[in-house]
Design a protein that fits this description.
0% strand; disordered N terminus; single chain; mainly alpha; 65% helix; Chorismate Mutase Domain, subunit A
Length: 195
């Protein structure tokens, strides 16, 4: 079942302000804000969020819990270490993947709430979570780590934050998720990165 389409509103990006490039900024730095690497990240994030519906349907059918905090923490710690091998800071990488998990859980909780309201029965032809959906998520996660590493020059450049914010708005302007989910998933991309 698909959540109602809710247009991305300006408040999602309210915390993002255009960043002026100082006059003494080298030209190559100002020109390094290519949208292609960040666009790749957003596409992978979008695909990952779409899989949340399959995860929710499986858990609904099996009466499983949406949250498994111990498993989530182990996954995030492992991903942080894998991200370090690609040159990403561990704290930032863990924050990014925590945001993706949290956004997925928001979708699952919204679906569960809706299904309870309509007293939904079991779903047919739901992909098996352990053997089908989780391997897809694992593949996407490795692709995300690689894409984050490729986009790291843009992500850590304060002069690029405004452009990244514009790209988020354009890429996800008509999402299949609500604005809270979008804000959760994209927040690590939009916030300043501490050294």
């Amino acid at each position: 079942m698909k959540l109602a389409l809710i247009p991305l509103i300006a408040s999602t990006l309210a915390s993002v302000h255009p960043v002026a490039v100082p006059a003494n900024t080298p030209v190559h730095q100002a020109l390094s804000c290519s949208t292609q690497p960040v666009g790749r990240i957003l596409s992978l994030m979008d695909y990952r969020l779409k899989l949340a519906t399959d995860v929710a349907r499986y858990k609904w059918n099996t009466q499983g819990k949406i949250e498994d905090l111990a498993r989530e923490q182990a996954i995030i710690a492992s991903l942080g270490q894998q991200a370090v091998q690609q040159g990403l800071p561990v704290t930032w990488a863990e924050r990014f993947f925590r945001a993706q998990i949290d956004a997925s859980k928001q979708i699952q909780k919204a679906l569960f709430s809706h299904w309870r309201q309509i007293q939904s029965g079991q779903f047919d032809n739901v992909p098996d979570l352990p053997t089908v959906t989780r391997p897809k998520l694992d593949t996407l996660t490795m692709q995300l780590i690689n894409a984050l590493a490729d986009a790291w020059p843009q992500l850590q450049n304060p002069a690029c934050k405004s452009k990244i914010g514009q790209l988020v708005g354009a890429k996800l302007k008509e999402p299949d998720y609500n604005t809270t989910t979008i804000a959760t998933a994209t927040d690590p991309l939009l916030q300043p990165i501490n050294p």
